Amino acid sequence: MSNLYILEHPLIQSKMSLLRDTSTGNKEFRELVKEIATLICYEATKNLPLKTIEVNTPLSKTKGSLISTEIGLIPILRAGMGMVEGILSLIPNAKVGHIGLYRDPETLMPIEYYCKLPIDADKMEIFILDPMLATGGTASAAIQFLKERGIKNIKFICLLSAPEGIKKVQSDHPDIDIYTAALDDGINEHGYIIPGLGDAGDRLYGTK
User: Fold this and answer.
1) Choosing from 24, 103, 122, 177, which is the catalytic residue?
2) Is the peptide bond before 195 cis (omega within 30 degrees of 0)?
3) Which one of 15, 51, 57, 197 has the largest count of C-beta atoms within 10 Å of its C-beta?
4) Residue 78 belongs to a domain with what CATH number?
């Protein structure tokens, strides 16, 4: 079964409380999403492979380490885009692709409408980004979409998750690790996480 990492660092939990609050405006919401994504990424990248290099310091030569693999970020449009900038602040050389999936409001099933992946994505460590893991349908479909293109090294990063979404991803893709800042009570009849934070995309971009 895939590993589930719920990150309980005080900085993350403090920022998540502000993110949930209805009084938090769009500008602050965007900033918080970036900051939380950065903190989660720090944990999600702790096992990246390293290579040894020689470094010339002002005083002598020494050995150092560099990440030995390319990294790809695949935000699920549109809300996943809010997480990209924060992660790029840590990994500025990461390549960024996009997957467009939306949930049918009646069936709650994911529908694909766009895909653009980095060149040689199948050779990269790939991080799928989406603020919310609710029913798990969209996340599972995005993972499957990448696997069908030969991509194997995949992790899923979200800010908020529900047990239904975790169960769906773990059932469909037991090889995929999930990183999240919070595991909430569940989802309502409309597929929204409860207590949640509302619609992440609308709060990011000021839409309804």
Assistant:
1) 103
2) yes
3) 197
4) 3.40.50.2020
What are the helix (H) ranges across 136-189? 137-147, 163-172
Active-site residue, selected from the candidate residues 122, 172, 177, 202: 202
103 is catalytic: yes
Q: How far is CA 68 from CA 61, 82, 180, 187, in A?
A: 20, 27, 25, 40
Q: Tell me, what amino acid is at 208? A: K
DSSP state letter for 121: G
Number of domains in the chain: 1
CB-based contact 181:7 (threshold 8 Å): yes
H-run or E-run covering 35:
helix 26-44
Domain that holds residue 22: 4-205
Is-contact 132 103, C-beta < 8 A?
Answer: no
Tens of pLDDT, residues 85-138: 999 999 999 999 999 987 777 776 778 889 999 999 999 999 999 999 999 989
- Is 30 among the catalytic positions? no
